[in-house]
Structures are given as C-alpha cells and as structure tokens.
C-alpha cells in the first residue's frame, strides 16, 4: 500500500516511470488536514505537460508530472467534512483554497493561497506551487471539500470513465474557450489547433449550438479527427490564406468568434508551417474575427521560455498586432480555465449522453509503464488523447 510510482520529467524529450514517495496529508511543512489521498483511476497526458517535456519551461529534473486526475478517495484528513473514503471523484487541475477573494469570485485558476510565488497552482507543474503530480498511483488533493467533484454513481461513472476523465481539464478548458469567445446558437467559430484541447473546444461549440465550427491545424490526422464529428477544417500548410479558406466554407472571410487552442509553440502558416512563430495564432484570430467579436485564449503563453528563438520571446514578449484587435474592439480572455465553473454541468452532459467527448478527442487508455511511449507518440502529433490507467481499473 505504501508504494507509489509516477512519471517524472528527466530532461528535454525524456520522462521516466520512477518509484516516488507515497503521499502524506502535507506539502513539506504545510499541513493538509483539509486534503485526501486518492488512488488514481485515470490520469491524462496533456499538451501543457509537453511544453515542460520539450524543455520549453524552467521545469526542474525530477518533477513528477500530471494534473488531469480522477480517483478513488482512500484516506481523508481530519478537516474534510463532506467527501468520504470510497467516493469516486474528478479533480480540477487548478488547486484552489476556496477561501481567498479570487476563489470566492469563482476564479479558481488564480487562487491566492496555494502558490507562494504567484496566483494559481496545479499538480505536477512548473511554477505552480510544488504540488506533486498525479501521473502516478496515488496523489494528495488539498482542500478536498472545495475542489473535488463526486460522481453520483460509481458503477455508472466507471462505465463512462473515458469521458469523465476529461472533466479534470480539457473538456472544461475547451468549453471555457468557447464560452469566453461568446459561442452560442448559430455562431460561426474558428478553432485554432486540433490537439485534444482544440477538439474538446470544437465539440463544446457544437454543444453550445454553433452553426459552423471550423478547425485549423497542420496535422492531417488531427484534422480528420475534427471532421469525424462534423467540423469543417482548414489545412494551414496550404498557401491559401486562412481568411480565403474560411471564405470558401462560409462565403465571407471572417467568423463571429475564435479560440486559440495552440499557445506559444504555434507554427506559422503556409510555407512557414514547419517553423515556430509564437504570435501566429493570436494575430490570425484577430485578423479573421469580425469587429466586436471575442477571442478565447486557453492556449498557454509563458513568462519564461528557455527554448524561444529570440530574446523577447524568452520572456514571453511576442509580436502581437494589438492595434488590429483594438481597431476591431475585440475582447480577449486568457489564463487557466477555472474548471470548477463548468465541471458539474459537463459531467451531466456526459452522464445524460448529450456529448461524446472521449470519441471526439479519440481517447486511448494506456498503462503507467507505457506513459513514456504515450509522451513520444503525442509529441509526434498522434490524433489521440492518452489516458493512463495506473491500477488497471478501466474496463475495456
Ligand atoms: N488554459 C488552460 O487552462 C489550459 C488547459 C489545458 C491546456 N492548455 C493549453 O492548450 C494548448 C493546447 O493543448 P493540447 O493538449 O491540445 O496541445 P497539442 O500540442 O496537442 O495541440 C496543439 C495543436 O496546435 C497545432 N498548431 C500549431 N501551430 C498552429 C497554428 N498556427 N494554427 C493552428 N494550429 C496550430 C499543432 O499542430 C497541434 O496539433 C496548449 O498550449 C496547452 O498548454 C491550456
Ligand atoms: Zn491538462
Ligand atoms: Zn483561493
């Protein structure tokens, strides 16, 4: 029981499954009697992990990865009142205290009490408070009563675990991107990026009633995946400009709203598709979104990027054409998705069959041993969302 194994970042391009400490109800000297220990049922690999694993952040060697966690409560601290041992729960990737002004306002992605160095924390992430990651067998979840979402029926939940596992991050994140971009019935939307977040966003746009969802990427398999559930697609390797490709689909070279599901490792368009151009997506969504539209930006931008191609980008300064966005009165919504704002409604959308989110992002379940291979395949652009099953609990 007191053994634990987890996926650790070793150096750029390398992760390893290691023996790690069994979690305590504490983070260093900080007591966490408000926390629980989870036996992890599923834990997903994310594009956000890839930024670290590609050496594009200041993540230290040995950092245990994993912020997309679903698990079974096996121990509860003295101060946990409502969550019980035996509950099957989804963990929002944001760690939040439930007590600070931001948490009280529902802004759980920028909690003020869980990370001494800046607002906001997450499991297994650089600069995010030092909380141990959950691509492991067991993990500590602090402030359990506030953070956790309990599934109403365990058997029903296990039958839909491939979908429910996405509630810890990418489903709410994609949905948040759509909501903040103002997607609603009849919207025409451009979603940049057909990775798991982009696909989850596109499926969320459909859930919100969008009329046309256009997904752009440069990986053909990922674009095919978007097509498989009714999206229109644009291949950004083509020389035809994005606006013209959009016009070929909807008759005009603009959309009502757009979502950046790519972030700072964005590549250029056309002949630049093989080259990193970190501001490409931000500039592209400003140029194709109608005046007065909103831009959802869940794609991640960093304050420090050792792998950036120029000195400004190394500090997170990008060449954004803000004058264009200003002239068009665009609204911009950035930052971590406050998962808790959405996870209960989205859980019900899954449980009552209003969405097939696992199918949309093409979930593939793998064992903990296979995590390093999962990272490699995901890095190569596999049109899959890898879900680690550390205890072999997920039914076929
Ligand atoms: N805000 C949040 O709370 C939150 C949560 C989860 C993930 N994220 C971020 O969302 C982003 C996407 O995550 P993911 O798991 O889907 O990652 P991913 O790396 O699998 O997907 C990114 C996709 O963008 C494509 N791409 C590159 N340049 C492009 C361009 N110019 N236009 C269109 N597509 C382009 C890539 O080919 C790739 O398919 C990452 O930056 C991740 O860190 C943010
Ligand atoms: Zn994630
Ligand atoms: Zn807080």
Automatic annotation (TrEMBL):
Its cofactor is Zn(2+). GO terms for molecular function: formaldehyde dehydrogenase (NAD+) activity; zinc ion binding. It comes from the Bacteria. Its EC number is 1.2.1.46. The keyword Zinc applies. This is Formaldehyde dehydrogenase, glutathione-independent. Residues 34-152 form the Alcohol dehydrogenase-like N-terminal domain. The gene is fdhA. Pfam families: ADH_N, ADH_zinc_N. NCBIfam families: fdhA_non_GSH. Belongs to the zinc-containing alcohol dehydrogenase family. It comes from Larkinella rosea. The keyword Metal-binding applies.
């Amino acid at each position: 029981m007191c053994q634990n194994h987890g996926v650790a970042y070793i150096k750029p391009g390398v992760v390893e499954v290691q023996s790690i400490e069994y979690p305590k109800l504490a983070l260093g000297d900080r007591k966490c009697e408000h926390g629980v220990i989870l036996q992890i049922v599923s834990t997903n690999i994310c594009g956000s992990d890839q930024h670290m694993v590609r050496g594009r952040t200041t993540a230290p060697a040995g950092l245990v990865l994993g912020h997309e966690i679903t698990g079974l409560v096996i121990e509860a601290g003295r101060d946990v009142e409502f969550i019980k041992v035996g509950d099957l729960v989804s963990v929002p990737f944001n760690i939040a205290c439930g007590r600070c002004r931001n948490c009280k306002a529902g802004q759980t992605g920028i909690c003020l009490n869980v990370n001494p160095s800046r607002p906001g924390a997450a499991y297994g992430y650089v600069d995010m408070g030092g909380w141990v990651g959950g691509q492991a067998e067991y993990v500590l979840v602090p402030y359990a009563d506030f953070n956790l979402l309990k599934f109403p029926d365990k058997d029903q939940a296990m039958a839909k675990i491939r979908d429910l596992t996405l509630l810890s991050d990418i489903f709410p994140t994609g949905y948040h991107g759509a909501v903040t971009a103002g997607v609603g019935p009849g919207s025409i939307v451009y979603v940049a990026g057909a990775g798991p977040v982009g696909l989850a966003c596109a499926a969320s746009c459909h859930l919100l009633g969008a009329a046309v969802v256009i997904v752009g990427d440069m990986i053909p398999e990922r674009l095919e995946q978007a097509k498989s559930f009714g999206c229109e697609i644009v291949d950004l390797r083509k020389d035809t400009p994005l606006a013209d490709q959009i016009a070929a689909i909807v008759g005009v070279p603009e959309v009502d709203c757009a979502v950046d599901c790519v972030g700072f490792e964005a590549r250029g368009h056309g002949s630049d598709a093989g080259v990193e151009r970190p501001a490409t997506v931000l500039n592209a969504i400003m140029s194709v979104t109608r005046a007065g539209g909103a831009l959802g930006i869940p794609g991640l931008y960093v304050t420090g990027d050792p792998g950036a191609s120029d000195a400004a980008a190394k500090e997170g300064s990008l060449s954004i054409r803000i004058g264009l966005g200003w002239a068009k009165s665009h609204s911009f919504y950035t930052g971590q998705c406050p998962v808790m704002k959405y996870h209960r409604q989205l859980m019900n959308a899954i449980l009552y069959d209003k969405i097939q989110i696992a199918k949309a992002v093409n979930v593939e379940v793998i064992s903990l041993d296979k995590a390093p291979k999962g990272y490699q395949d995901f890095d190569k652009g596999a049109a899959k969302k890898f879900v680690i099953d550390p205890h072999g609990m997920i039914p076929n």
